Amino acid sequence: MWTKAYQPVVPRPTDVVLPHRRERFDDRVKESSQRKLQDEFFDHRTLLTFSRVITQGQFDSLDFPVATGKEGGVFRATTADGFRAVKVYRIGNTVFRNLPAYAIDELRRETSARDFAGLVYAWTRREHTILGRLNEAHVRAPMPYGHLRNVLVMEFIGNEHGGAPRLREAQIDDPAEVYRDLVDQIRRMVVDAKLVHGDLSPFNTLYFEGKVVLIDVAQAVSVKHPSAPQLLSRDLDHFARFLRHSGFEVTGAEFLKAVGGDRLNPKAAGG
C-alpha cells in the first residue's frame, strides 16, 4: 500500500518505460531495444500501474532491466536519493506453472484460480509482506517500499554500475565465510522470522560487498507448515553442493543443524 498523499500530474504510460530518445538514448539501436522490451513485457494495464506508482513518489523513471524472464522481471529505477528495484510480474498463467501446490493453495484463499490477474496481484502482495517480515527479523533481504497490482518496489541491491550478481555467478574468495554468512541469515529466517524459503539456492541469492542477500521469497512458508522440514532440507542441500564445489566441505545435514532446522524435524537429513 502506497503512503504518499500528493497527486501530481499523471505521466504518459509509455514515457515511464520508453523515455524520449533525445533524453535517454544515443542512437536508434538503443531505442529499438527499448521498444522491443516494452512491446514484449509491458501490457497496457502494467503501464498504467507504472504511471500511478510514479505519481505517488516511489521512483522517477526506469533505468534498465536487471533480470527478465517468462514470469516477469526486475528493473533498476532512479529516485531523488538513489536507486530502487522494481519487480514486475506478467499478467498470465506463466507465473504459476512451476509453483508448488502449497503456494497455489495459499493464493486460492484470496482469489479465484481462474482469475490470473487476481492471482498475480495476490502473489505480489505476498512477496511484499514476506520481505517485511524478513526485514523485521534482521534477515538480509531487500527492504520493501510498496506494491500496486503486479508491481513491487523494493531496495535495489547493487550500485551505479548495475545489480549485484547471483551467488552462483559471483567470484567467491572465501567459501567458509560464505557458509558462515548463509548460516546466519537462514537461521534468522527460520528461528526469528519463522519462515522457510522453499526455493532457496545460489541462483536466487545475491552476493553484494561480500555478503549474501536472500531474494524471490513469495513462496516462503511458515516453519509450522507440514512441508517446511522437507523444503528447508532441500534448500540447504543446494547450498551444500555449491559450497563443496567451491572448496568448502559441508553436508546438507550439517547445514540443517547449523541453522536450527533439525528442530523442525529431527529425522531430516541432507546430502
Give a verbal description of the structure.
The chain is built from nine helices and eleven strands. It folds into two domains: 13-159, Phosphorylase Kinase, domain 1 (2-Layer Sandwich); 164-263, Transferase(Phosphotransferase), domain 1. The strands form four sheets. A five-stranded antiparallel β-sheet has the order 1-2-3-5-4, with helices on both faces. The protein has a two-stranded antiparallel sheet with strand order 6-7. It has a two-stranded antiparallel sheet with strand order 8-11. The chain is α+β, with helices and mostly antiparallel strands and 271 residues long. The chain starts with 12 loop residues before the first helix and ends in a 13-residue tail after the last helix. α8 packs across α9. 40% of the residues lie in helices and 18% in strands. It has helices spanning 13-17, 21-24, 28-41, 44-55, 101-108, 116-136, 175-192, 228-246, 252-258, and strands at 61-68, 72-79, 82-89, 144-148, 151-155, 158-159, 162-163, 195-196, 205-208, 211-214, 221-222.
Q: From the 3D structure, determine the CATH topology of the largest domain.
A: Phosphorylase Kinase, domain 1
- Main sheet record: 5 strands, antiparallel
Whole-Å distance between the termini?
Answer: 42 Å
Specify the CATH homologous superfamily of the largest domain.
Phosphorylase Kinase, domain 1
- Number of helices in the DSSP assignment: 9
Query: How big a fraction of the residues is strand?
Result: 15-25%
Spatial order of strands in the largest sheet? 1-2-3-5-4
Low-confidence runs: 1-10, 266-271
Look at the helices and sheets and give the structural class: alpha+beta
- Spell out the helices and strands N to C: HHHHEEEHHEEEEHEEEEHH
- Write down the overall mean pLDDT: 84
| CATH architecture call of the largest domain | 2-Layer Sandwich
Counted up, domains total: 2
Backbone CA Rg:
20 Å
Number of strands: 11
